Amino acid sequence: MNNLAQTRAKVESAISAHSLLPAMLAVNTLALFALERLGGVPDWIKTAAALFLAF
Description:
By secondary structure, the protein is mainly α. The protein contains 2 helices and no strands.
């Protein structure tokens, strides 16, 4: 019975971690779009990101 409880705890933690990553990415994306609209992202960061994503 203890083994079943441990397995259930592992599955529950995997589910919460599985749903946490997309939520964090969405918040991060919205923050970047807000900074972009306010002019808070310097051009050199945009260039560096474009070069990084090109590879």
